[in-house]
UniProtKB/TrEMBL annotation:
This is Trans-sulfuration enzyme family protein. Keywords: Pyridoxal phosphate. PROSITE patterns: CYS_MET_METAB_PP (PS00868). InterPro entries: Cys/Met-Metab_PyrdxlP-dep_enz, Cys_met_metab_PP, PyrdxlP-dep_Trfase, PyrdxlP-dep_Trfase_major, PyrdxlP-dep_Trfase_small. Signal peptide: none annotated. It comes from Gracilibacillus marinus. Belongs to the trans-sulfuration enzymes family.
Length: 378
């Protein structure tokens, strides 16, 4: 009998106890593994032994890769040092010099920077386009990949993944989706035909704002390529951070349940507030909810400085997805380096606030934002 998502996420530990019956996997905080003799070394290279050197492989990082692959219902996964390195090794496993990538233009700011500045030096060309338009018009003879996010940042557009996959299949392109905001609790792109799914595990998978990590999942063939890139570029994750991320995943389902319930309630409450121009909160992401991020625009209706000064216990940060509610300011952080016209076109306004809704009591969250907005109202 197969296990449900919530059960699978709790039972992620694959423990290697070396004879000691530990309940959870020990941390293999070692840079290398020893060999009994030369035969033993030979066995590693024949594939009969798992571990040589931590940059090449480690039980804790393997455990994390497999755990996320299991939740995404994909064959295999690898852990990397960050979300951005996951994206980089994912892309390099399908694209090479001379290739062309079509990327959604409303990507996470750091991803946009990576694609614009680094891929060019690899000789990989990128077109940023609206994925709400007909994608076929942008396909060139050297196009190899369609890249997007299942829920975009910070305006929370829900990607039509079925359509992206359909176009890709027609032209024999690969697809890659950043599933960080949705998590496999809400969306499982691999099951919809997406080739490579990437995560900033720094966010909901870890869940406690205490690690930086990434994961790439997909077919055995593509993950073998991604792994080779990860080993050669040295973008491996540390065993301790992998262990912490696995610990975080065990509560992913219960955290997401509370996160999404609170976010829905906050989005409903703030849409009634006179200081708020617009609330961005998706609909119909999944029957389990619509995600944990609520973005509001208070341009023209409220004083942004007063709002940020009145947040009391809610922290101002340049990240998201912790158990504590926090806010970020896209124009001042994640999207500050975008050209002005791109900011404007994407709707990154001076009154745009991204709220990462935590797992506190719903009323405390709603009251604090309502009071801050009351004070800030012009
Ligand atoms: C944070 C984030 C990233 C980058 O991840 P890091 O772990 O900071 O490298 C990529 N995509 C999305 C959607 C993110 O939120």
């Amino acid at each position: 009998m197969g296990q449900g998502f919530d059960t699978k996420s709790v039972h992620v530990t694959m423990k290697r106890d070396g004879g000691i019956p530990t309940k959870v996997t020990p941390i293999h905080q070692t840079s290398a593994f020893t060999f009994k003799n030369l035969d033993d070394i030979e066995q590693f290279y024949q594939g009969d032994r798992d571990y040589l050197y931590t940059r090449v492989g480690n039980p804790n990082t393997d455990e994390l890769g497999k755990a996320v692959a299991n939740l995404e219902e994909a064959p295999l996964g690898i852990a990397t040092s960050s979300g951005l390195s996951a994206i980089m090794v994912g892309i390099l496993s399908v694209a090479k010099s001379g290739d062309h990538i079509i990327a959604s233009k409303d990507l996470y700011g750091g991803t946009y920077e990576l694609l614009v500045t680094e891929l060019a030096s690899f000789g990989i060309e990128v077109s940023f386009v609206s994925f709400e338009e007909d994608l076929e018009q942008y396909i060139q003879a050297n196009t190899c990949l369609l890249y997007t996010e299942s829920i975009t940042n910070p305006l929370l557009r829900v990607e039509n993944l079925e359509n992206v996959v359909k176009v890709a299949k027609k032209y024999q392109l690969k697809t890659m989706v950043d599933n960080t905001f949705a998590t496999p609790y809400l969306v499982r792109p691999y099951t919809l035909g997406v080739d490579i799914v990437v995560h900033s595990a720094t966010k909901y998978l870890g869940g406690h704002s205490d690690i930086t990590a990434g994961v790439v999942v997909g077919s055995e063939e593509l993950i073998a390529k991604a792994k080779q890139k990860c080993v050669n570029l040295g973008t491996n994750l540390s065993p301790f951070e992998a262990w912490l991320t696995v610990r975080g995943i065990k509560t992913l389902a219960v955290r997401m349940e509370r996160h999404t319930r609170n976010a829905q309630a906050l989005a409903d409450a703030l849409s009634e507030h006179p200081a708020v121009n617009k609330v961005y909160y998706p609909t119909f992401v999944s029957e389990k909810g619509n995600g944990a991020i609520v973005t509001i625009d208070i341009t023209d209706n409220a004083n942004i400085d007063t709002f940020f000064n009145e947040l009391q216990w809610i922290k101002i940060v340049a990240t998201l997805a912790g158990v504590e509610t926090s806010v970020s300011y896209p124009l001042g952080t994640s999207h500050r380096n975008l050209p002005k016209d791109v900011q404007q076109e994407l709707g990154i306004t001076k009154g745009l606030i991204r709220i990462s809704v935590g797992i506190e009591e719903t009323n405390d969250i709603i009251e604090t934002f309502t009071q801050a907005l009351d004070s800030a109202k012009i």
